[in-house]
Amino acid sequence: QVRLVESGGGLVQPGGSLTLSCAATGTVPGVNSMAWYRLTPGKGREVVASMSSTGHRVYGDSVTGRFTISREVPNTVSLRMSSLKPEDTALYFCYLRSYSGDVSYWGQGTQVTVSS
Fold first, then answer.
1. DSSP string over the chain
2. How far is the C-alpha of 70 from the C-alpha of 57, rounded, in Å?
3. Which residues are bridge partners to 80 per DSSP?
4. CA atoms of 56 and 50, how far apart (whole Å)
5. How many CA atoms lie within 13 Å of 5's alpha carbon, on the beta-carbon side?
6. What is the distance between the alpha carbons of residues 116 and 110, in angstroms, rounded to a whole number?
7. What is the pLDDT of residues 52-96, one digit of tens each?
């Protein structure tokens, strides 16, 4: 079993920056993809960014150019958010998908609020 624990959420002002981190523990498959999703009442769940274990990155249209996903530390994914907007306010979830067994895992979520 894999556990994903997010950290780094909080309150930031528009235009500010914030970095989220997620650590995966347990038996983590070697071939996988880790990602960040966010949930809002209006838009529902949307993908923010994802990164495979081979280094391939994909960003959601709304965050391209402002957010950067990285997996510099094994079994960890980070999301550096810059030029934050109020519409970035959401509950951010860490996600891991295993390509071996086609199983996925979700973190508990960390709240990001962008407001002045």
1. -EEEEEE--EEE-TT--EEEEEEEEES--SSEEEEEEEEETTTEEEEEEEEETT--EEE-TTTTTTEEEE--STTEEEEEE-S--GGG-EEEEEEEEETTTTEEEE---EEEEE--
2. 8
3. 19, 68
4. 8
5. 4
6. 19
7. 999 999 999 999 999 999 999 989 999 999 999 999 999 999 999
111, β-bridge pairs: 91
In angstroms, the CA 32 to CA 66 distance is: 24
Closest to 107 measured CA to CA, from 115, 97, 116:
97
Look-up: residue for tokens 């980070």? 78
Structure tokens at 51: 């990164």
